[in-house]
Amino acid sequence: MTMNGTLSPQEGDTTCVYGKLSPLLSLDFEPVGRWFEAHHRRAHSQHSHSHHSIEGGSSSSESEEEEEEEDQFDEEDESLLLRLDPREWKKQDHYAVLGLSKLRHRASDDQIKRAYKQKVLTHHPDKRKAKGKKVKEGDDDYFTCITRAYETLGNKQKRRSFDSVDPEFDEDVPSVSQNSKDNFYEVFRPVFERNARWSSKRRVPKLGDENTPFEEVDHFYSFWYEFESWREFSYLDEEEKEKGENRDERRWIEKQNKAARQKLKKEEVARLRQLVDNAYACDPRIIKFREEEKERKNAVKRARQEAARQKIEEEERRRQEILDEERKKKEKLEEEARAQAAIAKKEKDAFKKQVKKERKTLRTYMKDNDYFATSEEDRVNMLQEVDRVTELLSLTSLQSLNEKLSKASKDSGKDIFMKGVNEVNEQLEEEKRKQLELTTQKSGGGGASGGAKKDWSEAETQVLIKGVNLFPAGTQDRWEVIANFISQHVAGTNKSAKDVLFKAKELQKNDMKLREDVKYNAFSKFEQSHKAAKSGEMEKPSERLETVGEQQVRETGSNQAPWTADEQKLLEQALKSFPASDKERWEKIASAVPSRSKKDCMKRYKELCELVKAKKQAQTAVAAKNKKS
Amino acid sequence: MAAFGLHIGTCSGCLAVYRDGKTNVVANDLGDRVTPCVVAFTEHETIVGAAAKQGIIRNASNTVCHVKRLLGCSPDDPLVAEYSKTSSVNVVNHNGVLMFEVNHRGKPAKFSPTDILKTIYKKMLETAQSHGGSGIQDAVLAVPPDFDTNQRNLVTDAATKAGFNILRVITEPSAALLAFDVGQLDQTEGFKTLVYRLGGTSHEAVIMEVEHGMYRTVAKVSDSQFGGDFFTEALQRFLMSEFNRQSRCDMKDNKRSVAKLGLAAERCKHSLSTMLTAQCAVDSLYDGCDFHYNMSRARFDSLCQPLLFKCTALIEQVLGEARCTKEDISKLIICGGGAKPPIVKKAICDFLPNATRLDSVPEDEIIAIGAAKQAALLVGGVESENIGIDKESSLINFKFLPKAVCIKTSNEELEVVLPQHSLAPSRRQHTLTLAQAQTDVALEIFQTDDPAKLETSELLAKLIMRDLPPGSTIKSNFHLKREGDLHITCHEVTSDKYESVTIPCP
């Protein structure tokens, strides 16, 4: 815009600012219409709005706009054009030739057209000839290249194929490395933006950033994995189909080209695939999502484990509780038992003490009364009596005796004492009788050992031995047969098979010992038997009055067989009845136990003492142990 | 590449397509260019459109219409109660969300307004696909200007779920403007346009200012208590009294007869928009009596007359809000299906005698076509999609120079360099050629509201250049920066002298 009639400055005027521009108005507009789009785009692309476009003259506005866009065109560079070889047009960069190297694939059709027109204006051979420049003849001139460039870029199809093989395009695919992992967005964003232009679908999803939600990231990768590229490589065809002279040749060329294109296309697909794979491998979001997924799974697993563990713990605790309770109960019971034992012991002690005391009272009483004795012998007897009474009388009777004695006078005291003595003796007699009855009942005629309750006569035994020898082991129903045999030969027997078996076994056992004894005293025996035979009056050979044990005691002076319960009872009874003070105590005891000698009894007594001692020791040890635990 | 424009109104929707440089309305499967926004649920299927509207007589309780009214409403909104009065569909509050309760396939079912809307959009998508293959259906949605962000989002979601790819949501008045390419061909135009829309159940008037080819809403008034249905009702009442007179029976209490007559009246009204007389015939309307009446347009106009003041009253109101007179409005767009009767258009045109009415497009298709044009713009430019607009912000903010920037010429006049309402940032080149004898120059820069009056102008700066070669040309560059500063540089070509000044903006 030109203007005439400008002011001349007055003297002294200088360039200066007098006022301020009024502040800008801000108005809201509907996002509608092409002008809005244009302004909006400008506002975003940081271009300042050229005011010429709103200028009044409509003709000028267009040219002004052109001007504005022209700064995107290249500077005139004739050297490039002069270097061009028209025969090698296929290798030239068409954009550069038209001066669009800055815009390249972004150049609009309109811009290409304008650039071409501009080039024609300056480089047309006629124009140059007019300027007096040298021009080559015909197709050799570089102007052909310009027309070729426009032919290629002006045609949508051709431009596409040229764009596809744009030499400026960076085909680089970032590798999977630490760097691309650390700077994922910086490394991959430009690559994806670069490659997005090949997409045949519009609206290529953006790479986004670390805050992009999972769905979008997922969409991004699914889009790129199914990327459809419009890129094609027909521009690189070795030979042009049109050059074929006949149909067959053209067909052949077409086939060749197709194969080559397909190979390149395959490579391209592989390249994109590689790119997406690499990005996927490096994407920190994918890693994060994966980790989150894993974390979630782990959390679930952990929760389950925790629950199981708690359950087990709970069970364990419950069981422990039950055990504790049981233990406590047991302890309590033990405690009670112990207390009872202590009480019992105490009572026992007290009882013993009382007994002792009573005994002492009796003894002192007797002593005081000089044992009611008149003679020395009498005294000794009385002393023995007193001892026996004190030992054997029970506490209550002793007490009553003492009481009676203390109340009674000296004369009557003796009577009372004697009565007590008699009582004791009677008691003893009674016990002894009972015991004897019991023993005789139990052991019968045979040896006290074993459960053979039936008496075996000598005849029976003889028959038995005979029978056993007659019917050797292995005979069917041997013992029944023997029993029958016995009943046949001995009148009035009622021995059953069981009895027979029992007796036979007993005999066998004794027999062994007998044999050994026989070995030892073969001679003496022979002599004895000889003597017996000589005397011929002593024993009836078929009768036996004593048991095996008695016989042994009589013969050897000791019975090797183990003590039976009956013998034991007899011994205990004897021990009780014959006090320790008795000089011939053991003889008496031995006589009380018919099947044992004096030596046996003493031995047994010692054994028993030791046994009791050991038992006590063991008990104390156990008690101590319990206390410790 | 096809791009669609979608407009779903309260009563009916329209779909337009842009293809190969042309914008056209897509007819639906029945061949209608406008589809009624009615959804009917039956024993067997879901019906959308005219069939559903026909079935309303028998299936009233399962037919949802006017769903747009309840969009984004909470269940205790007074609108809901109002809606329930007119509709036989059961509206329920389901967990704080508004739901329609209908019988669908023999079972009771609940649908939210968004679901209904989605069904309608699906129907539209079918129509779109029947027109142009099954690719991505890019579409621009047109919504009423009083829709808030939530409602816009609901509409967008429904359309997206139905299968459309929504490029942008625009307002109905701006779509109407775009349909006539207002300001699009010559962006220097600056004027005010009134967009009056008379829909089925509501009407609104919007004054839009067109500046630099862009549209700005100056004032808008909407009223949901009046619409095209009122004309139908007036006609229906008239026909009812006529039937009463003819057959001597009163059909007021029979709902089905009333509904039948209503549909007949609507058809009759549509016919009267194009023809001078229309037959209104209903067989067995009530009690076995047929009804037939020959309606003339004149009679219909006389019936409508008392209602027309409502339209003009609304326009008056919007003028008052915009603080401008009837004369300021230079262009008038009447859109909406309700504005089809000639009497309505005439009334409005008479009310604004100075405005030229744009009427090359049928009223009920204007908005859809405008939306399709916008869609075309968005689809065409590859770059534009990189910029994008937040769906939330319905309006975009631009900055303007409030006053014109001028320079003073030797004959004490102002020459405009940057006119009023120049967009910031902008640049302007200005060339000064000095007189042969002149060797120095003074550039006085003013800002003013009215370039014709030098007295009221404010001097901003002076640029002085001395000792210039005679007959020199000075190229001056005026650069209005984004922040509001004005930077001026002068460059004398032959002597290569520079002078620059920056006028700050407070």
From TrEMBL, chain A:
Residues 93-166 form the J domain. It is found in: Cytoplasm. Keywords: Activator, Chaperone, Coiled coil, Cytoplasm, Nucleus, Repeat. Pfam families: DnaJ, Myb_DNA-binding, Myb_DNA-binding_2, RAC_head, ZUO1-like_ZHD. Residues 529-547 have a biased composition (Basic and acidic residues). Residues 40-79, 428-454, 529-566 are annotated as: Disordered. Residues 563-613 form the SANT domain. Residues 290-361 form a coiled coil. Residues 40-51 have a biased composition (Basic residues). GO terms for biological process: 'de novo' cotranslational protein folding; regulation of translational fidelity. Residues 62-79 have a biased composition (Acidic residues). Signal peptide: none annotated. GO terms for cellular component: cytosol. GO terms for molecular function: Hsp70 protein binding; ribosome binding. SUPFAM superfamilies: Chaperone J-domain, Homeodomain-like. Residues 555-609 form the Myb-like domain. This is Uncharacterized protein. It comes from Elysia chlorotica (Eastern emerald elysia).
From TrEMBL, chain B:
Its main location: cytoplasm. This is Heat shock 70 kDa protein 14. It comes from Elysia chlorotica. GO terms for cellular component: cytosol. It is found in: Cytoplasm, Cytosol. The keyword S-adenosyl-L-methionine does not apply. Keywords: ATP-binding, Chaperone, Cytoplasm, Nucleotide-binding. InterPro entries: ATPase_NBD, HSP70_peptide-bd_sf, Hsp_70_fam, HSPA14_NBD. Belongs to the heat shock protein 70 family.
